[in-house]
Amino acid sequence: MIREIVPGALFELRDVNSRGLDKVGYGLTRSAIERANDDADLIIVGGSNLYEGAFGWPWGVHLDLEALKDLHVPLFLVGVGTGSSFHSRLHKPSARAKLEIKSLNERAVLSGARDVTTLEWLHELGVPKAKLMGDPATFIFNHPLKQTNVGHVLITVPPRRVWSNKRQFWKVRTNGRALFHGLVKLTRELLENGEQVVVACNDPLDLPVAQKLFNWVPTVLCPATPDEYFQLLSKSRAVISARLHTAVVAFSLGIPFLLIDIDQRTHGFLRTYQLEGSSIPPASSAMALLSKQAETLLLKEQSETWQTHIAKRDHMHSVAMKLLKSALKSVG
User: Fold this and answer.
1) Considering only Cβ atoms within 10 Å of each terminal Cβ, which end of the chain, N or C, has fewer?
2) What is the pLDDT of residues 266-292, one digit of tens each?
């Protein structure tokens, strides 16, 4: 998105917390901020559920507040969100997390929220400058609506933690496993109806569960690279997903989808683009709706509805680009 405005922009990628490959030099530390002041024109912090915290993990950005005061380079927060806990309310940040999130946003030239749920959460936290930007991944391709009945139906399984999770044992045992079994039942029905079906995982850790439950399906796989995943998606006529990011990229490719609304970040995405009609909740009682919703998804008559959805996506892209252009202009 930035290269659409500044074609020659160069990027140096750094880990913002310890979950990346760099286990030593991560985060906005004193040394990182001094390096940015010396070498960079701009710092961008973005993506994922960085606003989210847990016990022993205040939130997703490792931050030195004192060093932040000495930052002279413009700071953008782009597409940051929250709400990844399965079938749960948004978490309440700790006092430390509140202070650091507010401080980082106050320092930022641009505070772009990923979805309306995150935007509301930030405003309640005391960050009024936050603006709705949408998920940047929604704008990877910006393809028009794919209008063809050719190709496979892609079914993306939920993350492994929805099958087995000690911290959410009963939610997973009831609603989580019902979701997996609902997808298994739907896959059988689609194959019996003559559809070509591919079952995919977003994470290699999810593959053993998928292979166990779908061992009778001809194609169960986990693409090794983003490009391989994009190719798999682009060959789909429709997508049925329990993974938000699969639906996000399908949306960018103009491919109709049915998204299982498993957490608050998913719900935020659906609300942002008014896609609630293309989703079902993860409750075990809702699994009976899955077949009916999938049948509706595959109807050619849905074309007009999806044209409207794609128009909303393109409008949000325009909004996001205006925010970026304005912020870049303000810092020269």
Assistant:
1) C
2) 999 999 999 999 999 887 778 888 999
pLDDT digits (tens, 9 = 90+) for 306-316: 999 999 999 99
Q: The tokens 């809702």 sit on which residue?
A: 286
Crossing angle of the two packed helices 116-125 and 264-272, in degrees rounded to 10 = 110
Residue 292 DSSP SS3 = helix
CATH fit for domain 152-311, picks 3.40.50.2000, 3.90.1150.10, 1.10.357.10, 3.40.470.10: 3.40.50.2000
Give CATH 3.40.50.2000 domain extents, the chain.
Answer: 152-311
Say which amino acid occupies 107: R
Summarised one tens digit per residue, pLDDT across range 177-213 is 999 999 999 999 999 999 999 999 999 999 999 999 9
Q: Is 38 exposed, middle or buried (0-12, 13-18, 19+ CB in 10 A)?
A: exposed
Which residue's structure tokens are 């505070």? 111
